[in-house]
C-alpha cells in the first residue's frame, strides 16, 4: 500500500507542477520555486507536535519526500528545529541542516560529471 | 507562449493592426494538450516516487536506516541516477516526454545542476562549471531559503511550540 500512495501522491504533485506550467503559463523555474515555497510553508503549519508536511510524509512516504516540495520542507524543518533549540539565531544556522544530503550530492555528482562527460543532445 | 503572456500587458501600447495580428496569432496557436501532459507527468512522476519508495524500503531493511533518516540516502541515489542519465543525454529525452513529471522530483533539480555544469564546461572549471552550476537551480534555493527564513521568523514572533 505504501507503494501505491507513493505513486499516486508523487504523481499528483507532478501534475500540479504540470498545471502550473501549462495552465498558469509559468516557466519550469517559476514552477519549481513555487513548489519549494509551498513545501516550506507546509512545514510551518504545526499542530500536535508535528507539521502538516510531516503528516504528509507519514502518509505518502517517498511520494512526499522525492518531489522538490520536500526541499522547502526540510529547509524550514532545520530552521524551526534550531530555533527551538538555540533561539532566534537558529533560524539562520539551521536552514541547511536537514537539506545537506540533496544539495551536497547534487553539487558533488554534477561537478564530477562535468570533469568526465561532454554535453549531449 | 511567453510572447502570448507578454502581449496582454503590452496590448495598450500597440496599434490596432498589431492587436489584430496578435489576436490572429493567438487564435492559430495550437492548444496545449493539457490533459495528455498531465497524464504523462502523473505517470513519470509516480514512477520516480515509486523508485524512491523502493530505495527507502531497501535502506530501511538492509542498511539500518530509520524511517526518518532513509530519505537522505534515497535522495542521494536518485540524484546520482539522474546525473548519470543527464551525462548520457537520456534524462532530457525522458523529460521531453514527461514534462513536469521529471522536473518536479528532486531528480529534476539534479538534472538542472548537471546540465548547466556540462554546458558551461568549455568556459573552464572555475568560471564555467563553478559559476554556472546554479544558473537554473539557484532560484529554487533562493526562494526555498527565503521562505524557510520567513516561516522561522513567524514562528519566533508567535512563539509557536513544536
Q: Would you write up a description of this structure?
A:
- The complex is a heterodimer of chains A (121) and B (162).
- Chain A has one domain (2-116).
- Helices cover 76% and strands 3% of the residues of chain A.
- Chain A has helices at 2-22, 28-44, 52-60, 62-65, 69-86, 89-94, 100-116, and strands at 46-47, 50-51.
- Chain A is globular, with a radius of gyration of 16 Å.
- Chain A starts with a helix and ends in a 5-residue tail after the last helix.
- Chain B has 162 residues and is mainly alpha-helical.
- In chain B, helix 3 (34-62) packs across helix 4 and helix 7 packs antiparallel against helix 8 (125-132).
- The longest helix of chain B has 29 residues, at 34-62.
- At the A-B interface, helix 1, helix 2, helix 4, helix 5 and helix 6 of A face helix 1, helix 3, helix 4, helix 6 and helix 7 of B.
- Chain A: Pfam families: SpoVAC_SpoVAEB (PF03862).
- Chain A: InterPro entries: Spore_V_AE, SpoVA.
- Chain A: Keywords: Membrane, Transmembrane, Transmembrane helix.
Runs of chain A in which pLDDT lies below 50 for 5 or more consecutive residues are: none
Report the order of strands and helices of chain B: HHHHHHHHH
Structural class of chain A comes to mainly alpha
Number of domain modules of chain A: 1
Mean pLDDT of chain A: 89
- Which structural class should the secondary elements of chain B be placed in? mainly alpha
Distance between the termini of chain A: 38 Å
Q: Which tags fit this structure?
A:
heterodimer; A: two-stranded antiparallel sheet; 76% helix; B: mainly alpha; 9 helices; 0% strand; extended; disordered N terminus; transmembrane (chain A); membrane (chain A)
Describe how the helices and strands are arranged.
The complex is a heterodimer of chains A (121) and B (162).
Chain A lengths: L1 H21 L5 H17 L1 E2 L2 E2 H9 L1 H4 L3 H18 L2 H6 L5 H17 L5
Antiparallel strand pairs in A: 1-2
Helix pairs in contact in A: 1-2, 2-5
Chain B lengths: L1 H9 L5 H13 L5 H29 L8 H17 L2 H9 L1 H4 L2 H14 L5 H8 L5 H21 L4
Helix pairs in contact in B: 3-4, 4-7, 7-8
Amino acid at each position: 500500500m505504501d507503494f501505491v500512495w507513493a505513486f499516486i501522491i508523487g504523481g499528483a504533485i507532478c501534475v500540479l507542477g504540470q498545471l502550473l506550467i501549462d495552465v498558469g503559463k509559468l516557466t519550469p523555474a517559476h514552477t519549481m520555486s513555487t513548489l519549494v515555497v509551498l513545501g516550506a510553508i507546509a512545514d510551518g503549519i504545526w499542530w500536535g507536535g508535528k507539521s502538516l508536511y510531516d503528516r504528509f510524509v507519514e502518509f505518502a512516504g517517498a511520494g512526499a519526500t522525492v518531489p522538490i516540495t520536500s526541499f522547502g520542507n526540510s529547509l524550514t524543518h532545520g530552521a524551526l528545529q534550531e530555533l527551538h533549540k538555540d533561539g532566534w539565531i537558529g533560524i539562520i544556522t539551521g536552514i541547511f541542516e536537514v537539506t545537506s544530503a540533496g544539495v551536497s550530492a547534487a553539487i558533488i555528482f554534477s561537478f564530477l560529471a562535468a570533469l568526465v562527460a561532454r554535453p549531449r543532445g | 507562449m511567453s510572447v502570448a503572456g507578454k502581449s496582454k500587458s503590452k496590448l495598450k501600447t500597440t496599434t490596432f493592426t498589431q492587436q489584430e495580428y496578435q489576436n490572429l496569432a493567438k487564435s492559430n496557436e495550437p492548444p496545449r494538450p493539457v490533459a495528455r501532459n498531465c497524464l504523462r507527468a502523473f505517470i513519470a512522476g509516480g514512477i520516480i516516487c515509486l523508485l524512491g519508495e523502493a530505495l527507502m524500503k531497501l535502506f530501511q531493511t538492509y542498511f539500518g536506516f530509520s524511517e526518518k533518516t532513509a530519505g537522505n540516502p534515497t535522495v542521494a541515489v536518485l540524484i546520482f541516477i539522474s546525473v548519470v542519465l543527464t551525462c548520457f543525454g537520456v534524462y532530457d529525452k525522458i523529460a521531453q516526454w514527461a514534462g513536469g513529471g521529471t522536473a518536479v522530483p528532486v531528480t529534476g533539480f539534479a538534472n538542472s545542476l548537471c546540465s548547466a555544469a556540462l554546458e558551461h564546461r568549455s568556459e573552464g572549471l572555475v568560471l564555467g562549471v563553478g559559476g554556472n552550476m546554479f544558473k537554473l537551480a539557484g532560484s529554487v534555493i533562493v526562494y526555498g531559503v527565503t521562505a524557510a527564513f520567513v516561516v522561522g521568523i513567524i514562528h519566533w514572533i508567535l512563539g509557536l511550540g513544536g
